[in-house]
From TrEMBL:
Substrate binds at R186, L206, R209, E286. In the C-terminal section; belongs to the HTP reductase family. One of its GO terms (biological process) is riboflavin biosynthetic process. PROSITE patterns: CYT_DCMP_DEAMINASES_1 (PS00903), CYT_DCMP_DEAMINASES_2 (PS51747). Its EC number is 3.5.4.26, 1.1.1.193. PANTHER family: 2,5-DIAMINO-6-RIBOSYLAMINO-4(3H)-PYRIMIDINONE 5'-PHOSPHATE REDUCTASE, DIHYDROFOLATE REDUCTASE FAMILY PROTEIN (AFU_ORTHOLOGUE AFUA_8G06820). Pathway: Cofactor biosynthesis; riboflavin biosynthesis; 5-amino-6-(D-ribitylamino)uracil from GTP: step 2/4; Cofactor biosynthesis; riboflavin biosynthesis; 5-amino-6-(D-ribitylamino)uracil from GTP: step 3/4. The active site is at E46. GO terms for molecular function: 5-amino-6-(5-phosphoribosylamino)uracil reductase activity; diaminohydroxyphosphoribosylaminopyrimidine deaminase activity; zinc ion binding. Binds 1 zinc ion. It comes from Maribacter cobaltidurans. It catalyses: 5-amino-6-(5-phospho-D-ribitylamino)uracil + NADP(+) = 5-amino-6-(5-phospho-D-ribosylamino)uracil + NADPH + H(+); 2,5-diamino-6-hydroxy-4-(5-phosphoribosylamino)-pyrimidine + H2O + H(+) = 5-amino-6-(5-phospho-D-ribosylamino)uracil + NH4(+). This is Riboflavin biosynthesis protein RibD. Keywords: Hydrolase, Metal-binding, Multifunctional enzyme, NADP, Oxidoreductase, Riboflavin biosynthesis, Zinc.
Amino acid sequence: MRRCIEIAKNGLGQTAPNPMVGAVIVYDDRIIGEGCTSAYGGPHAEVNAIDSVKDKSPLYKSTLYVTLEPCSHYGKTPPCADLIIKHKIPKVVIGLKDPHEKVSGRGIQLLEEAGCEVTIGVLEKECREHHKRFLTFHEKKRPYIILKWAQTLDGFIAPTKEIRKENPAPFWITNEYSRQLVHKWRSEEQGILTGTNTVLEDNPKLDVRWWTGRHPIRIIIDRNQKIPMGFHVFEGISPTILFTSIKNSINKYKNIDLVNINENYNMALDMSKKLYELNIQSVFVEGGAKTIQSFINENLWDEARIFTGDIFFGDGLPAPLLEGRIIKEKQIQNDLLKILRNDQEHHL
């Protein structure tokens, strides 16, 4: 099962909205096949694992290990449970039950009815951690939300407006290695979210340049549609969603989806619901302090990744405030990275 989790990580950032599953086939105490979920629309892990076995004759005496319950419904691909049954694999070991309403025990039932010996809950805790995005989406009815920011040693995330006017170029708090890591993180999530002020002040691209991988879906909060057309976020390199409070507004943007949010309603809560409806399973929030704090205030976050750079501003925009459990600390040259987990449940 540990090997299943290890190879499943090859699908990070590629499989959504499908889960990134890993599968291993064992015969006579030896791995004879393994596979992970292909990019969305491609074969699932169990299919790839079975296909990797050149000589199929030992399958009827083998055990298939898989991080998540095999699917039992037709989607982009046929049901994996049917394929396991077809090849008469007698034993299936499952990390955890699938919470998806189209599966949720049905895959296990099909296998057992066909005579398979099914074991459930092996390394369940580790499998839950691995499938945290997929599970949060289906159990809490919202995306898995990761907050990220960089702050100075004296607790600021941006300099004063006066300093910005003198030097409009972006102020880098972190070093180039930390910035490269952020691009790696972007490639791992389905969406990246930021607010109006961040776009107007920094004109970010919100893409993956210093790493390889898929650009995330760009999610921009622009309630009053203040951002001019020439900004990088409106370049068509990746799908883009614009949250606006202007009702019945005409979509003047090319390749941009306008999504209405209630002006008088809690912004973070409203957006989380809308992103769930749009089938977006994970969001990397790189907004300014106001945007990030709105998610913190509603307890709508799962992880916070906070860089502290070796720099002082003396004055400026204070960093967001949050409480969480530190799960990792790492020194990246002169930067300190802390990753916090939110242990308080929040379902929509």
